Protein backbone atom coordinates (compact mmCIF):
# COMPACT_ATOMS: atom_id res chain seq x y z
CA UNK A 1 0.00 0.00 0.00
CA UNK A 2 1.57 3.28 -1.04
CA UNK A 3 -1.32 5.58 -0.20
CA UNK A 4 -4.61 4.86 1.46
CA UNK A 5 -8.04 6.39 1.02
CA UNK A 6 -8.96 5.49 4.61
CA UNK A 7 -10.39 8.43 6.52
CA UNK A 8 -9.58 7.14 10.01
CA UNK A 9 -6.52 5.56 11.58
CA UNK A 10 -8.63 2.56 12.60
CA UNK A 11 -9.71 2.01 9.00
CA UNK A 12 -6.13 2.43 7.78
CA UNK A 13 -4.86 -0.21 10.19
CA UNK A 14 -7.72 -2.55 9.23
CA UNK A 15 -6.62 -2.39 5.57
CA UNK A 16 -3.17 -3.76 6.39
CA UNK A 17 -2.28 -7.45 6.41
CA UNK A 18 -1.98 -8.65 10.04
CA UNK A 19 1.84 -8.81 10.09
CA UNK A 20 2.21 -5.28 8.67
CA UNK A 21 -0.54 -3.99 10.97
CA UNK A 22 1.40 -5.24 14.00
CA UNK A 23 4.59 -3.42 12.91
CA UNK A 24 2.80 -0.15 12.12
CA UNK A 25 0.77 -0.36 15.35
CA UNK A 26 3.92 -0.84 17.45
CA UNK A 27 5.55 2.28 16.00
CA UNK A 28 2.29 4.22 16.24
CA UNK A 29 2.03 3.30 19.92
CA UNK A 30 5.60 4.51 20.53
CA UNK A 31 4.89 7.84 18.81
CA UNK A 32 1.60 8.36 20.64
CA UNK A 33 3.22 7.57 23.99
CA UNK A 34 5.87 10.25 23.46
CA UNK A 35 3.81 12.89 21.66
CA UNK A 36 3.68 16.25 23.44
CA UNK A 37 0.25 17.72 24.15
CA UNK A 38 -1.18 19.80 21.34
CA UNK A 39 -0.47 17.54 18.37
CA UNK A 40 -3.38 15.63 16.83
CA UNK A 41 -3.31 12.21 15.17
CA UNK A 42 -5.04 12.26 11.77
CA UNK A 43 -5.10 10.59 8.39
CA UNK A 44 -3.13 12.85 6.07
CA UNK A 45 -1.63 12.27 2.63
CA UNK A 46 -2.84 8.65 2.75
CA UNK A 47 -0.98 7.81 5.95
CA UNK A 48 -1.16 8.23 9.71
CA UNK A 49 -0.01 11.71 10.61
CA UNK A 50 0.59 13.83 13.67
CA UNK A 51 -0.05 17.49 13.05
CA UNK A 52 -0.41 20.93 14.56
CA UNK A 53 -4.10 21.56 13.86
CA UNK A 54 -5.15 24.53 11.75
CA UNK A 55 -7.04 25.89 14.77
CA UNK A 56 -3.63 26.35 16.41
CA UNK A 57 -1.55 27.37 13.38
CA UNK A 58 -3.18 28.46 10.16
CA UNK A 59 -0.24 30.03 8.29
CA UNK A 60 1.06 26.94 6.47
CA UNK A 61 2.38 27.17 2.92
CA UNK A 62 -0.20 24.70 1.59
CA UNK A 63 -3.25 25.34 3.78
CA UNK A 64 -2.99 21.89 5.42
CA UNK A 65 -2.23 21.28 9.10
CA UNK A 66 1.48 21.50 9.90
CA UNK A 67 2.83 17.93 9.69
CA UNK A 68 5.06 16.94 12.61
CA UNK A 69 5.42 13.22 11.84
CA UNK A 70 3.87 10.53 9.65
CA UNK A 71 3.74 6.75 9.45
CA UNK A 72 2.95 4.62 6.40
CA UNK A 73 3.01 1.08 5.12
CA UNK A 74 4.65 1.42 1.71
CA UNK A 75 4.92 -1.16 -1.06
CA UNK A 76 8.24 -2.75 0.02
CA UNK A 77 8.79 -1.35 3.51
CA UNK A 78 7.32 0.92 6.15
CA UNK A 79 8.18 4.59 6.53
CA UNK A 80 8.32 6.90 9.51
CA UNK A 81 8.48 10.55 8.49
CA UNK A 82 10.08 12.80 11.10
CA UNK A 83 9.53 16.36 9.93
CA UNK A 84 10.51 17.35 13.44
CA UNK A 85 14.03 16.11 12.59
CA UNK A 86 14.37 17.07 8.93
CA UNK A 87 13.48 20.70 9.63
CA UNK A 88 16.91 21.15 11.24
CA UNK A 89 20.40 20.06 10.20
CA UNK A 90 21.39 19.96 13.87
CA UNK A 91 18.51 17.62 14.74
CA UNK A 92 19.26 15.39 11.74
CA UNK A 93 22.92 15.07 12.72
CA UNK A 94 21.97 14.44 16.37
CA UNK A 95 19.64 11.61 15.35
CA UNK A 96 22.20 10.07 12.98
CA UNK A 97 24.92 10.11 15.66
CA UNK A 98 22.65 8.64 18.33
CA UNK A 99 21.38 6.00 15.89
CA UNK A 100 24.94 4.96 15.00
CA UNK A 101 25.71 4.61 18.71
CA UNK A 102 22.63 2.40 19.13
CA UNK A 103 24.10 -0.26 16.83
CA UNK A 104 21.00 -0.26 14.60
CA UNK A 105 21.17 0.36 10.85
CA UNK A 106 19.62 3.65 9.76
CA UNK A 107 17.92 3.69 6.35
CA UNK A 108 16.98 7.36 6.09
CA UNK A 109 16.05 9.82 3.39
CA UNK A 110 15.48 13.52 4.10
CA UNK A 111 12.71 12.95 6.64
CA UNK A 112 11.85 9.30 6.04
CA UNK A 113 13.19 6.37 8.05
CA UNK A 114 12.47 3.14 6.20
CA UNK A 115 12.00 -0.11 8.13
CA UNK A 116 10.51 -3.59 7.79
CA UNK A 117 9.89 -4.31 11.48
CA UNK A 118 9.51 -2.05 14.50
CA UNK A 119 12.53 -3.85 15.98
CA UNK A 120 14.63 -2.41 13.12
CA UNK A 121 14.13 1.01 14.70
CA UNK A 122 15.86 2.55 17.69
CA UNK A 123 12.45 3.23 19.24
CA UNK A 124 13.94 4.92 22.30
CA UNK A 125 15.55 7.50 19.99
CA UNK A 126 12.29 7.91 18.05
CA UNK A 127 10.42 8.54 21.31
CA UNK A 128 13.08 11.07 22.38
CA UNK A 129 12.82 12.96 19.09
CA UNK A 130 9.03 12.95 19.10
CA UNK A 131 8.95 14.15 22.73
CA UNK A 132 11.60 16.84 22.15
CA UNK A 133 9.47 19.52 20.50
CA UNK A 134 6.23 21.13 21.62
CA UNK A 135 3.84 22.43 18.98
CA UNK A 136 4.92 26.02 19.75
CA UNK A 137 8.59 25.08 19.30
CA UNK A 138 7.82 23.23 16.07
CA UNK A 139 5.90 26.21 14.70
CA UNK A 140 8.88 28.46 15.49
CA UNK A 141 11.23 26.01 13.76
CA UNK A 142 8.89 25.76 10.76
CA UNK A 143 8.76 29.52 10.42
CA UNK A 144 12.55 29.60 9.96
CA UNK A 145 12.33 27.24 6.96
CA UNK A 146 8.82 27.93 5.63
CA UNK A 147 8.67 28.17 1.84
CA UNK A 148 7.71 31.60 0.54
CA UNK A 149 4.23 32.01 -0.91
Please work out how many helical segments DSSP would assign.
6
**H/E series:** HHEEEEHHEHH
| Helical amount | 40-55%
Shape: globular
Q: Span between N and C termini?
A: 32 Å
Number of domain modules: 1
Molecular structure report:
There is one protein chain. The chain has 149 residues and is α+β, with helices and mostly antiparallel strands. The protein has one domain (9-145): Alpha-Beta Complex (Aspartate Aminotransferase, domain 1), CATH 3.90.1150.200. The protein contains six helices and five strands. The protein has helices spanning 9-15, 18-34, 83-86, 89-102, 123-131, 135-145; strands spanning 40-44, 47-52, 66-73, 78-82, 112-115. The protein has a five-stranded antiparallel sheet. β1 (40-44) and β2 form a beta hairpin. α2 (18-34) crosses α5.
Quick summary:
Helices cover 42% and strands 19% of the residues. With 149 residues, it is α+β, with helices and mostly antiparallel strands.
Blueprint of the fold:
Blueprint: H1 9-15, H2 18-34, E1 40-44, E2 47-52, E3 66-73, E4 78-82, H3 83-86, H4 89-102, E5 112-115, H5 123-131, H6 135-145
Antiparallel strand pairs: 1-2, 2-3, 3-4, 4-5
Identify the notable features of this structure and list them briefly.
6 helices, alpha+beta, 5-stranded antiparallel β-sheet, Aspartate Aminotransferase, domain 1, single chain, 149 residues
Amino acid sequence: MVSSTATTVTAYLAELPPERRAEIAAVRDAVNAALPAGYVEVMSYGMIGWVVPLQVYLDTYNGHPLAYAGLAAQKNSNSLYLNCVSASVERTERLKAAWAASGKTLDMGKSCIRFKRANDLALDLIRDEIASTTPAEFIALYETVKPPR
